[in-house]
Specification:
Blueprint (H helix, E strand, L loop, with lengths): L7 E3 L5 E3 L10 H4 L5 E6 L1 H5 L8 H14 L2 E4 L5 H4 L11 H12 L3 E9 L51 H18 L4 E8 L14 H5 L4 H12 L4 E6 L5 H16 L6 E4 L2 E3 L4 H12 L5 E9 L15 H4 L8 H18 L4 E6 L25 H12 L9 E8 L1 H4 L6 H4 L6 E4 L14 E3 L13 H12 L5 E8 L13 H6 L3 H9 L4 H13 L3 E8 L10 H15 L9 E4 L13 H5 L2 H4 L3 E4 L15 H26 L1
Parallel strand pairs: 3-4, 3-11, 4-5, 5-6, 6-7, 7-8, 8-10, 9-10, 10-11, 12-15, 12-16, 13-15, 16-17, 17-18
Antiparallel strand pairs: 1-2, 13-14
Helix pairs in contact: 6-8, 10-12, 12-13, 16-23
Length: 672
Amino acid sequence: MKMLPSLCLCLTGVGVFVSPLAAEEPAALKDAFKDHFLVGTAVNRSIVTGQAGFRREADLVAGDIALVKAQFNQIVAENDMKWMMLHPRAGADGYDFTAADALVAFGEANQMEIAGHTLVWHSQTPNWVFEGTHLPPGVDKAPEPEAAEPAPPGRGRFGRFRPFNLDGPRASREELLERMRDHIHAVVGRYKGKVKVWDVVNEAIADNGDEVLRKSPWSVIIGPDFINKAFEYAHEADPEAVLRYNDYGLENPNKRAKLLKLIKSLKEQGVPVMAIGSQAHLNVSMNFEKMDQCLTEIATLGLPIHITELDVNSAVRGQRGTGADIANNAAATEGGLVEEANRKLADAYEGIFKAFVKHRDSVEMVTFWGANDAVSWRRGGNPLLFDGNNQPKPAFGAVIGTAKTATTSEVDGDFHIYLCFGQSNMEGFPGIEEQDKEGVDERFQMLAAVDFPEMERSKGNWYRSVPPLCRPRAGIGPADYFGRTLVSQLPTKIRVGVVNVSVAGSKIELFGSETREAYAATAPGWMKGIIEAYGGNPYAHLVEMGKRAQKDGVIKGILLHQGESNTNDKDWPAKVKAIYENLLHDLDLKAEDVPLLAGELVPEDQGGACASMNTIIRTLPEVIPTAHVVASESCESRGDHLHFTPAGYRELGKRYAETMLSLLKAQTDVAE
C-alpha cells in the first residue's frame, strides 16, 4: 500500500489548505477521483456559516472550512435539512430555512454539488406531523400520555428521539399525505435547480424478520405506498432532480435482498426512483470482497449508486454491525479503539475504495459523513480520513492510492477463474453434509449461473462458494473442493472463482455447436427444464457467464466431468476437443494459458457402472495436448455406482486442484 507524505494545514483568514506534495501527487480527494465520481462530505451549521458552534471553537471551524473547500466537490447537510430542523412547527409559517439556505449558498459559492437529506424518515420528524384525532383500528379510547423521560447522559443533541405513539390518536391517511406533499413541495420547490439530488425516503427497510418495510408512522398511517407518494410529490416539485432511496446496512445480504425486492417493485409500478443511496456506515472489518459483492448486486437494479454517509468505525464495540440507529450510536463508539486502529482503518478504506473504483460505472458519488473525526457523529470511533485537527491519517494516503492505481481495466489478475461443465457429477449430486457448508474461505467465490432464490443469489453475481455451486437443488461436486484446495495452497492475494454450467444426464452432444439442437429436442422433460434454466442453450450460457466473469478476473482453466451418458463412445475425445476449441475462440483464450482438466468416472475398484469409459477419457491428451486427466481410483461411490459420495467428491476435487497447482507451478517456473 503506497502512503503519501503528511499534509500540512496553514490557516490564514478563513483558512487555506496547503499541501507540500508535488504537483503530480494529488493532494485532494476531489482531484484524485475526478474521473471516477464526486467526493463529498456532510457539513454542519458552523462550516456553512463560519461561526463557532457545537464542539468547535472559531479557529477549528476555520480549519474545517478550509478542509471542506480543499478536499470535496459535493456537500450535504448533516442535520439541517431534516424535518425536525427545517420544519419544526406545523403550518406554512413553521419552517426555518436559515441554516439550509446557508448550506445552499456555501455550496454554490464553492462550485459544489448539493444533495438534500432527507424528505421522509421515521426519525427526526416532529410528532406534530403524525398527530391527529383518529384512533387506531380496534382502539376506542386514547391512552394516558406518557411522562417525559430525561435523555440519558452522553447522548448529545441529536442522540435521542421519542418515537410517535401509534397506539394513541393520530392523523388520518389523507391528513398525513397532505402534510407530506406540502412539506416536500415547499422544501424541494425552494431549492429547485440548486439541490440536484434528494434523499426522498430514508431507512424504510426493516432490519430483521421477513417484512420488507419497517413499522413506522408513515407505513402504519399511510400504508406501504407512502414511498410511492413521496417520490411522486418530489418529482412534481422538481422534475429535473435526481431522486434516491437511501438506507443503511446494505452490506448485509438479507437487508440487501429486501432492497432489491423493494426497488424492483417500485420500478415495476413506475415510481421515479432514480438512484440508490447506500449509507455505508462500516467498520474496520470491511474489505474489498464484501463491498464488491454489495455493489455488484445493487448494480443489477440498473440505477446509479450513491455512497451517501460513509464512515468506518474503529471502536471495539463498533465491529458488531453496520447499523445506523441514532440511539445506538453511543454504544457503538465506546470502549476504546481496536488494536492498530490506524493501520486497520487504512486497510479497510483501501479495500472499500478499490471496490468503488472498480464499480465507477455505477458509483456516481461518495459522500463522507463528516469532514473530520471531531465533527463526526461517531467521533469516538475515529471513523474518517482526517483527525480532529484536520490532519490526514494513513487512511487518506490509502484512499488516494486507490485512485492512482486505477486503470481503464477492471480485471483483477489475482482473481483466477475456472469454467466447469458436464453432467450430474459436475453439477453436484444432492447430499450436502454440514462440513461442506462450513469454513468456506471468502477468497473462493462462485458466479451464480442461475438465480438461487432461497439463498438470495442472483444470476451473474459473485458469492462465497457455499454449496450448491451449479443450481439450487444440486449438491457438492468436484468444483467445491477444487476451489477450497486451491485457496488453501495459493498465496493469500489470489482469489479463486468457479462458473458451473452443467446438466444432469446429458450427453456431450448438448454442448456441441452442431449437435445441441437435435439432442435437446429429444431430451426428457426433466432435462429440458434444466436446459431452459440456461436459456435453452447451456453452451451459450457458459460463454455468457464466462464473459461476465472475465470482467472481474482471468480464466485459468476449464474443468470437465462428463461421459456416463457417452460410455464407450470412441468419438468422445474429438467431440470434447471441438467444444474446448469453441470455448477458447468464443472467450478469446489461448490453449497454453487455459488447460482442460477432465475427471474420470466412478472407477472399477468402486464397481463403477461406466468405468469402461475411463479408458477413453485417458486418451484425451492424445487429442488435446493441453488436456490433463484426473484419476478417480479409490474415490468413494454411492450405491448407484454412477455418482460419488460427498467423501468421494472431496477427494476428486482435491485431485483436480493438485493437477492445476502443478500446472500453475510449471507456468511460474517457465516465467522465471
